[in-house]
Amino acid sequence: MIERPRRLRSSAAMRRLVRETRLAPSQLVLPMFVAEGASEPRPITSMPGVVQHSRESAKKAYAEAVELGLGGVMLFGVPESKDAQGSGACDPAGILNVAIADARAEVGDDLLVMSDLCLDEFTDHGHCGVLDDQGRVDNDATLQIYGQMAVAQAAAGAHVVAPSGMMDGQVAVIRAALDEVGHLDTVVLAYAAKYASAFYGPFREAVDSSLQGDRRTYQQDPANRREALRETLLDVEQGADIVMVKPAMSYLDVLADVRAAVDLPVAAYQVSGEYAMIEAAAAQGWIDRDRAIDESLVSIRRAGADIVLTYWAAEVARRLTR
Ligand code: PBG
Predict the structure, then answer these.
(1) Cα 75 from Cα 157, distance rounded (Å)
(2) 120 CB less than 6 Å from ligand 1?
(3) Contact at 8 Å (CB) between 249 and 299?
(4) 8-state DSSP, 25
(5) Which is an annotated Pfam family here (predicted)?
């Protein structure tokens, strides 16, 4: 026998030497929820270990993220009141913009402050855009608001804005709006291929969403692979700096395609349902929790992600640096 592949698996030291894919804290981004008016962090039942932060508890988490060498935090706001236009999104006193400013004050340039750029946390109907008189999501009216939202987030101090609403033309409008007022260095991380996924279930609880209907007229059909490339290339043409695939684990083929098609950094979002599934199975004693977490993350990296958004970012970074 000439080839004996097992030789390179013979010890932990050997496996470490020849490992193709590695995880580093700097590649991990921690999504965080900050709730308006909260005096204490509030647990999210379907995401054990994840909370809706108060502004104060969030500040501690930003400092810890710096300490751990994370790539960044991705902020989501949970407003106290919502309306049809999602007006809290563009208000400088709105919870997300306030949280961005808190984060920047805490971390300066030692950690990247990223913000979700979407209306769904702010609208009373829960859609990612405003509705027309027939109740349909109005693409072009929504774009105008996204432009204002981008400027509000950049003014609050976001290093990176992350449009996640899957409106056509959103990256171009956001880039133009930012440039027009001089935010030339604000990075656009585009949720380029975002699917209408059941795996966002726990996120609905995390942001107190009251979604009426579903998002299938704007998020992608899970059955479509080639369409993800079309969406991604459109975002690249429109000026995206980083492109993202979401969810991660059920879309590793899409991630590999996107990696092969573009030279930009590629991110993947390990979403709330992916988190909840592993936590729930581990709580039953059915899988080894830490190994399952590490395997899920390394698989996402192996498929092509340079950057991974994960609710385990802090925990995994702590383990990596131990
Ligand atoms: C939209 C947005 C969602 C998530 C991130 N940004 C919800 C959705 O599109 O339905 C989901 C994240 C997760 O499930 O962890 N603002």
Answers:
(1) 12
(2) yes
(3) yes
(4) G
(5) ALAD
